[in-house]
Amino acid sequence: MNAIGVIPARLGSTRLAQKVLLDICGKPMIQHVWENAKKAKMLDDVIIATDDEKVADVAKRFKAKVVLTSIDHNSGTDRVIEVVNPLDVKVVVNIQGDEPLIHPSMINALVLALLDNPDLVMATLAKKITDENDIHDPNIVKVALDKYDFALYFSRSAIPYNREPKAGFLTQSHYKHIGIYAYTKDFLFTFMNMPQSKLENIEKLEQLRVLENGYKIKVIETKFQTKSVDIEADLDVVKGLLGSEKKS
């Protein structure tokens, strides 16, 4: 296979209980993610990776392929690695289970980036920030890019920092990071063997481990807006957006 998508779906979320199973417009959130991922033409398969029978049972009802993983994993990436270990595949896309607005073209762009350039080992997504408040929101991860669209740094802080702030300040250099990742399978196992890094532990951002070990992350700009669901307010926003789509 050229590429597969894996959706880690842990039931025991802390900030919003059992969020992957919460109802959004008549479907559990994980079903919205899976249905959008299935529309990505560059994926040969989509697998839900979960540590809980309850999630597995729900996923099987909407005909998803499910793999039950260990309950001892520290991250979704570890869950992805367990799933892909026995598979013969070139590219693996880690699709967050709390991204019900993910667009298939976002996934396609990541897969194409890695398949078209054998020198790349990892890619992710970003969108230009259009709301100044987002620059200063620590819940929104920002990414700074070099001139070749490789990540220089990821942070919850405002990067780049504007030394001379003005009202309504926005530049073409402020990007929101969208936490969907594509890796070559070989690099995914390289990543697994890297110890957690200093900056990763400070920012609580797993992707910084890659940069600290000297590897590059290609960043693909997307025009599509997404909304990850972390708290109840996020759920309300997503319900409103999906409801608007159905009416239009």
Describe the protein in words.
By secondary structure, this protein is an alpha/beta fold. It has a single domain, classed as Spore Coat Polysaccharide Biosynthesis Protein SpsA, Chain A, CATH 3.90.550.10. 32% of the residues lie in helices and 22% in strands. It contains nine helices and eleven strands. The strands form two sheets. Strands 1, 4, 5, 6, 7, 8, 9, 10 and 11 form a nine-stranded mixed beta sheet that branches. Strands 2-3 form a two-stranded antiparallel ribbon. A hairpin with a 2-residue loop joins β2 and β3. α3 packs across α6.
Layout of helices and strands:
Layout: E1 3-9, E2 23-24, E3 27-28, H1 29-38, E4 45-50, H2 53-61, E5 65-68, H3 76-84, E6 91-94, H4 104-116, E7 122-128, H5 132-135, E8 142-145, E9 151-155, E10 175-184, H6 185-192, H7 198-203, H8 208-212, E11 218-221, H9 232-247
Parallel strand pairs: 1-4, 1-6, 4-5, 7-11
Antiparallel strand pairs: 2-3, 6-10, 7-10, 8-9, 8-10
Helix pairs in contact: 3-6
Pfam family, one: CTP_transf_3
Subcellular location: Cytoplasm; Membrane
Main location: cytoplasm
